[in-house]
């Protein structure tokens, strides 16, 4: 990626400094995502989108009474229903999730992780946490807190989609 600012330019105005920060955040995000994708593939033979769907389902708590509609999974991940359908189909085929008709509405299904899916996700989540610690371990607790706090207002400002702008950010 072309860096529009010379390395020795210490007199960046606010706008250029924010652009430089954005580029640095983008590079860091891409690096971390690429590492996570590779590690998930190598250690668990899975993909990051599949991990994300399983994470959304796992957060629902009791797998026997809770679950998500396909549209809720899509909304949680900020992707289309079509993107989620294939992933859910494979999770169900692999025995990692279940699909049941929603009572009173045969057009919609409730998706839940199976016991095997919860167990598999727990192992992936533990590894994921270790990997994030490794990849971002150069940041001490104070730096993490400061960066996280400084990005919260930007998150709300940047989200101009009326369907998602009202959502609370999860930790």
TrEMBL record:
SMART domains: HTH_MARR. InterPro entries: HTH_MarR-typ (IPR000835), MarR/SlyA-like (IPR039422), WH-like_DNA-bd_sf (IPR036388), WH_DNA-bd_sf (IPR036390). GO terms for molecular function: DNA binding; DNA-binding transcription factor activity. Keywords: DNA-binding. Residues 18-156 form the HTH marR-type domain. Residues 150-171 are annotated as: Disordered. GO terms for biological process: response to stress. SUPFAM superfamilies: Winged helix' DNA-binding domain (SSF46785). It holds the Pfam family MarR_2. This is DNA-binding transcriptional regulator, MarR family. It comes from Modicisalibacter muralis.
């Amino acid at each position: 990626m072309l860096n529009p600012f010379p390395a020795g330019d210490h007199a960046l105005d606010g706008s250029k400094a924010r652009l430089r920060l954005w580029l640095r955040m983008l590079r860091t995000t891409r690096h971390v995502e690429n590492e996570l994708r590779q590690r998930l593939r190598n250690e668990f033979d899975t993909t990051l989108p599949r991990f994300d769907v399983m994470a959304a389902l796992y957060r629902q708590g009791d797998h026997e009474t809770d679950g998500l509609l396909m549209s809720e999974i899509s909304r949680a991940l900020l992707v289309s229903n079509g993107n989620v359908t294939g992933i859910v189909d494979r999770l169900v085929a692999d025995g990692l999730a279940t699909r049941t008709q929603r009572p009173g509405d045969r057009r919609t299904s409730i998706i839940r992780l199976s016991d095997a899916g919860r167990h598999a996700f727990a192992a992936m989540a533990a590894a994921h946490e270790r990997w994030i610690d490794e990849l971002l371990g150069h940041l001490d607790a104070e730096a993490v807190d400061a960066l996280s706090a400084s990005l919260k207002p930007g998150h709300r400002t940047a989200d101009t989609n009326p369907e998602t702008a009202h959502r609370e950010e999860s930790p």
